Amino acid sequence: MRQKYVVGNWKLNGSLPGNEALLQAVLAGVSPKPGCHLAVCVPAPYLAQVRGLLEGTPVAWGGQDVSRFEKGAYTGDVSGAMLREFGATYSIVGHSERRTVFGDTDAVVAEKYAAARKAGLVPIFCVGESLAEREQGVTETVLARQLDAVLEKSGPAALDGGIVAYEPVWAIGTGRTATAAQAQQAHAYLRGRVATKDAAVAARLPILYGGSVKGANAAELFAMPDVDGGLIGGASLVAEDFLAIWRAAVAAA
Ligand code: PEP
User: Please, what are the domains in the chain?
Assistant: First the structure.
């Protein structure tokens, strides 16, 4: 039986007082459950603050991206070792906003995945098709290309201890959620593709859904057999919304 995950992605949002209020409200409402994991992925400057607020609580934390390099002349990058120094468990890798706004290619994402693993982080490896790609009927081709970049660079064993997040680009921040059936179909496809390389790794692999998840749609999504929780953007910025999604994950576990 796989475990459930609810991971917030704050994106480029936050302030010292706002973060504290949000996390205090989350902590006040969270009831831990074995086999269920709750985390927030925060902008790097807030890692120290978040560590101070969350250490010893049921809520873990992570980065939103990781450098593909370990150290050196890479201005602006944050390494996996740096994230680990601040107690991060996770790092998002290959989010569609990194791919589309910052030009991360499949090859770069694969390098970042490998760097995250090497540093001891749990990568949350995002894949997903655009609206145009879905309408052209090439969703699975796109998912295969994105997934294979990591499989080819690091091998299927590297997915053991990692997390995949299916995030259809047309559903991110748009209020338009994939139906539970659409999510299940994509997740089953991803798991099946990993299974062609290593069936045991595929069976254990957590695959999260991301794209306008809310308290109102989380239960239906998390009830799908291949949906192991959610990567949550907008709703992770509102304690009650984030907690409602957490409760749906706990109920589905
Ligand atoms: C995300 O940023 O990964 C995301 C899924 O955002 P939202 O929940 O706002 O669609």
Answer: 4-252 (3.20.20.70)
Residues in the chain: 253
Query: Ligand 1 mean position to 181 CA, how many Å?
Result: 19
Measured CA to CA, the distance from residue 240 to residue 187 in angstroms comes to: 27
Minimum-distance ligand 1 atom for the alpha carbon of 172: 10
> Which amino acid is present at 215?
G
Ligand 1 atom with least separation from CA of 230: 5
Tell me the per-residue pLDDT of 210-252, one tens digit each, with 9 for 90 and over. Answer: 999 999 999 999 999 999 999 999 999 999 999 999 999 999 9
Question: Which of 129, 133, 167, 187 is flagged as catalytic?
Answer: 167
More confident residue, 178 or 204: 204
Position of tokens 């921040």? 173
Based on its alpha-carbon atoms, the radius of gyration of the chain, rounded to whole angstroms, reads: 17
Question: What pLDDT, in 10s, does the model give residues 103-162?
Answer: 999 999 999 999 999 999 999 999 999 999 999 999 999 999 999 999 999 999 999 999
